[in-house]
């Protein structure tokens, strides 16, 4: 792909560049991605030390290191109790990891979708994928697994998301071509229809089911387990690698379909692939975490404000920034109103909106294309 993009279009005339020339980066831009990774590691340990059972930061770090490195003395000398070990390793760590994977996946899906349709308001939920997952999950809750072919809650949500994706794709396709405007309109219309079905199921079900339905629709990682990390984790790694390899083609998309085609990009093929990647990231996340809005819309814009619109720089900041953002949100969700827990969807808007508005008022908004 790189070779295609750099090949002259015709004759001896050089091809236009698929990526903007890299301006000199500030020290903050160079250190931003390492700082985000360091923040994720620190937040994992902090999350492990936070909960009803008192555990210090050092004890949380010792337990995590002890499970990863065999033979460390504090794992057998009695300085750590069994309840502390179970609380950190079996409950708090998988929860924090799932929040990080979900945040990174939703943020990456938003960045890919915004590049795909060249619309700054595009986000994963606009495709109706989340609404489809909601119908599948609510059916499993209110009518039981037999109503969805014997599938459990997570599998029903994934099946609903996959069905919604296939339907949006078919509705958006005309004469073998996917038009970005049709894709968005089809997603909005289908999402509204599926949300109406979800609301109908919610108001007609028994009262004891309503809390479970609302908690799923607003998002939570409270029941996270290590097996639940596998599918969304594999999807995130695979699509992150793919996106980084195609970052030059994504830059070409910003200049329009004709320019991208002139630069050697197979626009229609890449558009279908990006749609599939976006749907897969969203479906695997929503199936285990429920509906978590705001992340896919705002985190990519925040990344552009910080490092510019070049996807070679913006995508790593988006992925790690999304992970850090949702891990921090989950930590707040289980601490600010103890012993009650706040659904993630409520806090993502409450925490993220002020931060986004603060960023938008600064000079970074010019680089993000929000302020001229």
Give the topology, please.
Blueprint: H1 2-6, H2 27-48, H3 57-68, H4 82-117, H5 129-143, H6 153-172, E1 173-174, E2 177-178, H7 180-204, H8 207-218, H9 226-245, H10 247-253, H11 257-262, H12 267-289, H13 295-307, H14 311-333, H15 344-360, H16 364-367
Antiparallel strand pairs: 1-2
Helix pairs in contact: 2-4, 2-14, 3-4, 4-9, 4-12, 4-13, 4-14, 5-6, 5-7, 5-8, 5-12, 6-7, 6-12, 9-12, 13-14, 13-15, 14-15
Descriptive account of the structure:
The chain is an all-alpha fold. Helices cover 70% and strands 1% of the residues. The chain has 16 helices and 2 strands. The protein has helices at residues 2-6, 27-48, 57-68, 82-117, 129-143, 153-172, 180-204, 207-218, 226-245, 247-253, 257-262, 267-289, 295-307, 311-333, 344-360, 364-367; strands at 173-174, 177-178. A two-stranded antiparallel ribbon has the order 1-2. A hairpin with a 2-residue loop joins strand 1 (173-174) and strand 2 (177-178). Helix 2 (27-48) packs antiparallel against helix 4 (82-117). The longest helix has 36 residues, at 82-117. The chain is globular, with a radius of gyration of 22 Å. The model is unreliable at 1-16 (pLDDT under 50).
């Amino acid at each position: 792909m790189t070779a295609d993009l750099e090949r002259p279009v015709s004759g001896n005339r050089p091809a236009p560049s698929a990526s903007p020339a890299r301006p000199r980066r500030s020290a903050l831009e160079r250190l931003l991605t390492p700082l985000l990774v360091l923040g994720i590691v620190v937040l994992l340990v902090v999350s492990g030390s936070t909960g009803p059972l008192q555990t210090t930061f050092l004890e949380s770090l010792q337990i995590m290191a002890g499970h990863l490195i065999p033979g460390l003395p504090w794992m057998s000398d009695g300085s750590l109790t069994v309840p502390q070990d179970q609380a950190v390793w079996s409950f708090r760590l998988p929860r924090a990891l799932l929040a990080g994977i979900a945040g990174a996946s939703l943020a990456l899906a938003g960045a890919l979708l915004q590049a795909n349709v060249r619309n700054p308001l595009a986000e994963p939920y606009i495709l109706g994928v989340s609404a489809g997952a909601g119908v599948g999950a609510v059916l499993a809750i209110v009518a039981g697994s037999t109503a969805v072919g014997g599938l459990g809650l997570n599998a029903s949500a994934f099946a609903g998301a996959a069905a919604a994706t296939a339907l949006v794709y078919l509705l958006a396709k005309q004469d073998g071509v996917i038009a970005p405007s049709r894709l968005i309109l089809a997603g909005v219309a289908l999402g509204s229809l599926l949300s109406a079905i979800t609301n109908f199921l919610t108001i007609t079900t028994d009262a004891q089911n309503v809390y479970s339905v609302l908690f799923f629709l607003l998002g939570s990682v409270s029941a996270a387990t290590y097996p639940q990390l596998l599918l969304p984790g594999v999807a995130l790694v695979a699509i992150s690698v793919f996106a980084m390899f195609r970052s030059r083609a994504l830059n070409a998309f910003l200049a329009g379909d004709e320019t991208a085609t002139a630069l050697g990009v197979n626009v229609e093929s890449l558009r279908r692939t990006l749609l599939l990647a976006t749907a897969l990231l969203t479906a695997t996340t929503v199936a285990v975490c429920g509906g978590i809005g705001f992340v896919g819309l705002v985190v990519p814009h925040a990344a552009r404000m910080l490092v510019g619109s070049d996807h070679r720089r913006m995508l790593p900041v988006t992925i790690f920034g999304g992970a850090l953002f949702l891990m921090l949100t989950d930590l707040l969700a289980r601490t600010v109103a103890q012993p009650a827990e706040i659904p993630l969807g409520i806090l993502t808007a409450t925490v993220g909106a002020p931060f986004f508005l603060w960023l938008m008022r600064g000079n970074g908004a010019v680089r993000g294309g929000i302020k001229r």
